Amino acid sequence: MRLTHFNFAELCLIALLTALFFGAPPGASPLVLAGCLGIFYMLVGRALLVPATIRHGLPTFTTPKLLFFFFYFLLFYYPYQLYLLGFTDMNRSIFLRRTYVEHANLAMIAATIGALAFDFGIDAGLRGRELRVSGKRTPSRSLPVFCLTLQLVLIAVYFALGFRAASEGRYIGTSSGGQIAEGIYLIILLLAMVGTGEFIRRLAQREPLPPGLFLAMGVNLLWVTRILLAGDRNSFMLFAIFIAGGLFTYVWRATRLHLLVFLIGALVLYQSIEVLRMTQTMPLKDSLAVSLSGNAISAGDDNSFNITTIGLRATFEVVPEKVDYGYGLYKLVGFMGVVPLLRGVVFGDSLTFDTTSKLLKSEMLEPTAGWGVGSNIITDFYADFGLPGVIFGMMLWGWFVGCMQKTARVFPDSAKVATLYLLTLALFAEIPRYSADFPVRPLVWAFLLYQAYQALVASRLGRTPAPPGRLVAEHQRDP
After folding, report:
1. pTM attached to this predicted model
2. For range 47-73, the mean pLDDT
């Protein structure tokens, strides 16, 4: 791969920061924090200079890189920015007994290495070959009916069996149905995205919108509203980013101002749901205090974002001093989630820690705690392979994102490519707060849903021959 001057500078910075990681003093050194912040601002500024163009004539700043950097900033840089300005105290947390400030330098250096590696990987993917996910051109007239029918059947099964996936049940303290409920819940959301992807494609190509598609969109909106009211803000935000990203990429021209308004609105909504969840279990006087504080963007010591920030610092307390590296175990367990129930069959209850979120919980919370601290992408790579895992893991994911963006640019009229690209956009906007395998199952299952639809269409066309001229026209018109 031919390196640009900027990419060569990124590699040099990664090498320099790697050396600094192993020689950094304990604590939170202002020089280290400010230097890492400066490097991150340089990456964001570069991304804001030139918009991406997926559909010809529609430049957009709503890209996977910028959305990733936005959430990444909130988790790994914003609290330190506030600390340097004197607005927050890193030693204080109303949720945790310890904040691991002695590992702040390591956390900032590792996060900056990860950001540089991710940016480098995206550039490599954009210069490489597109991914072969477009498939053959398949008529999509019946795609909304396919999605809607399957979606209604799964929703009926979900309610009839009394399922409550952990994604929504964790906020009210109950869940039922186990992995089967989780799988159905995810497929319903993916079907909503596939149907929405077809809606966006037709809008972009100025095609008629059939009544079945409007009905499908109505069901989609009702479902995501339901999961929002249930407190599952992460699934709701996946759908919201998907549809907003689709409109800003394929239908409307999106400027930096549009992106800023969308991100601020999304953040306010995201944090407001957290406040609502907190007040549901609080005494009345505490509930009013939190609600009236209006801290949609908190000063950094009393929200769930800061728990993730502290979690990265706690990582260097645990691994490898207390728990050895996973050497790929956490990734293996995560990737096995693509096949339902496979993890339970292979490992059962034999693993002390099968996820990095459980590893962090054991360190950061009391054994009797009824909640978890989650994980983050840097912790997840580091816990398996150390700092080399952060470097090459983030490069690999960046390369994948770059390849998906290039594929979407090469096939701007393909419903399948557009849906997979927008799903990548949404998943990588949220991945900083999740494990590294977070995007794998949704992307694989969405791809398989398209393959199932294409197989169904192919079998129907095989049983009912169409006039050759009409069939050719449909294949040319509908990707």
Report:
1. 0.89
2. 92
